[in-house]
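Task 17 of the worksheet. Students: predict the tertiary structure of the chain below and write it out as structure tokens. Keep your answer in the requested format; marks are given for formatting as well as content.
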Amino acid sequence: MKMLLTSLLGFSLLLPTAALADKPSDERAIAGLENGRILWDITIGDPERLIARLSVIEETYDDMVRQGLEPEMMFAFRGGAAGMIAASTDHLELEDVSAVRHIHERLEDLLAREGVHMEACSIATRRFDLTQDDLLPGIQLVGNTFLSIMGYESQGYATIRID
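Model answer:
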């Protein structure tokens, strides 16, 4: 029985790798590119939905690396998402605290990756009475993420809305 469990565990660890090896490429779309520039315009205010979207964002980063692109990802938090990037969860409904803490862990993992930068809109954070000191470490408060979006798009970033 112990040998069977060990074999199953070993096989299960190989599944994600095997799935990635069989994943199709995006060679036609990314032909000639060296960098993958994406600005994630994050307005989603539902913690569970944001967790699901962060999984896709992480997979997108990994897909870039797998296909030889250097990821350059900007995150612009505004709207309801601004309330989920405060280091403290004291302002949240009790049923959202666990999910938001999970979001914090995911954002911390993303920030540790090369080429990832995060910004928060001061207009949106005012709604939650948040200052730079209240935000998760690594997230920079900016005046207006609409200007960020405009600026980064002019620098070649593709904006993908997460709402």
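Marker's comment: The chain has one domain: 34-162. The radius of gyration is 18 Å.
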